[in-house]
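Record pair follows.
FIRST:
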Amino acid sequence: MFSDIGALEVVALVILAVLVFGPDKLPKVIKDVMQFVRKVREFSDSAKADIRSELGPEFKDFEFEDLNPKNFVRKQLLDNDELGLKEIRNGFDFKEEMSSVTDAVHGRDSGTGAASSGSSGTPDRLRKRDGLTPGEAPPFDSDAT
């Protein structure tokens, strides 16, 4: 419940409580707060038990945490892959298609990747292109840009 409160915050709360209630009344205040927390927990546990008994035996494994939308989606869709959602999700992986398009644009063989630039380490764009002389620029296509 209080897992995100650090030691410094706890010390600050204790000092604040001592200043507000005083050292003589602080034990009684802590006792009253603890009794209130216990009563709230008992009330919520009895309410949960009443709801479960009213729902019937069909909902014996019902958990109230499942009413949280994140937990519901995780339990219903991600844990049970009856619909093949992992296959659909993997079908939207465009890395291979994009790498083949990139290789085609750069004039590399698809599937060989960066190794097709030659053993000299010279990038493909600096090497001689087919049909171009060494000083000639490639043709400019204004519709392609």
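SECOND:
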Amino acid sequence: MKIKHLLLTVFVLGFIATSCSESKEDGVYANWRERNENFVDSIANVYDSKQDPTLKRVEDTRNRGFYVYYKVIKESTLPVEEKNKPFLTSIVNVYYRGLLIDEEVIGKLPVENRYLYKAYKNLPKFDGNFDNEDPDVDIDQVTEFTVNGLVSGFTEVLQHMNVGDRWEIYIPSRLGYGNNNNGAIPGYSTLIFDVTLQEIVKQ
């Protein structure tokens, strides 16, 4: 087990070093597909080897065999009888921030219990409705979404969240925008979201 852990650590560090060198020499999005696939593979390896007990996953019910990975930043503090999860057709209010990978930034974070939302200032941001480390209900405005109107991975994971939960979510490109460019999001991008389910407007 120790050898396996060591080999995985060496692989991840080697991948980060190689990718950093490529991105500096060839541009921010050099080898983007490969880098994002390697990033998702490294998350899957950490999950499978149970190295990080904070890392969890859900299977996408519309794309069997593909998973969205997540970590709980904060659990809902609502009483059990008031906790509620949205349905596929629910309308919800969320605080969210969408980020892309940057291996150099990620490589500087602690390996154990690595939370990427803590590096939000240094990771490429493509969307969101709050700017500081945490959402501020007095300043920031929630965004209303219909659950089934989002990319597949986001639709799936929202249905597992309770009102008041805050999760860090990793959506592989297959469950995001695939090979299509979407605004500031290049094709093959892993989507990293910091999401707080604030309210179910309509169940």
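COMMENT: The radius of gyration is 17 Å.
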